[in-house]
């Protein structure tokens, strides 16, 4: 599995995985130590110079042409530089996600 985007950053390159079975796909991104309330994500998307979105967990989806559509379960964290820490955090299941190439 290769992630390429000018805004995406994947940490711990040896700790993520992907499985494909027919048109079904499962992507797993392992975050760092769980601090009770939240864990440090493994996949980051730099939305702007001051905003970053992070994720760790799994994505289960279906390949449709050049897209993977599915659900994401794990930890979502949003940072905004002026707050000097997470602006919000969500540990949840079944977020709808679409990945495009």
Describe the overall structure.
The protein has 101 residues and is an all-beta fold. It has one domain (8-100). The protein is 0% helix and 62% strand. It has no helices and seven strands. The chain has strands spanning 8-10, 16-21, 24-29, 43-46, 51-64, 67-80, 85-100. Strands 1, 2, 3, 4, 5, 6 and 7 form a seven-stranded antiparallel sheet that branches. Strand 6 and strand 7 form a beta hairpin. The radius of gyration is 14 Å and the shape is globular. The mean pLDDT is 77.
Topology at a glance:
Blueprint: E1 8-10, E2 16-21, E3 24-29, E4 43-46, E5 51-64, E6 67-80, E7 85-100
Antiparallel strand pairs: 1-4, 2-3, 3-5, 4-5, 5-6, 6-7
List the main descriptive attributes of the protein structure presented here.
single chain, mainly beta, 7 strands, globular
On the 0 to 100 scale, the average pLDDT is: 77
How many DSSP H or I helices? 0
Question: How far is it from the N-terminal to the C-terminal residue, by CA?
Answer: 12 Å
| Shape by Cα distribution | globular
Instruction: Give Rg in angstroms.
Output: 14 Å
Q: Please mark out the parts with pLDDT under 50 across 5 or more consecutive residues, or reply none.
A: none
Largest sheet: 7 strands, antiparallel
By helix and strand content, what is the structural category?
mainly beta
Number of domains: 1
Estimate percent helicity: under 10%
**SSE succession:** EEEEEEE
């Amino acid at each position: 599995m290769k992630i390429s985007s000018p805004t995406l950053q994947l940490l711990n390159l040896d700790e993520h995985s992907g499985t494909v079975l027919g048109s079904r796909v499962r992507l797993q991104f392992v975050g760092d130590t769980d601090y009770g309330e939240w864990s440090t994500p493994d996949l980051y998307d730099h939305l702007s110079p001051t905003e970053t979105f992070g994720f760790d967990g799994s994505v289960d989806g279906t390949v449709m042409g050049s897209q993977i559509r599915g659900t994401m379960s794990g930890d979502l964290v949003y940072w905004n530089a002026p707050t000097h820490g997470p602006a919000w955090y969500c540990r949840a299941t079944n977020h709808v996600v679409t990945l495009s190439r």
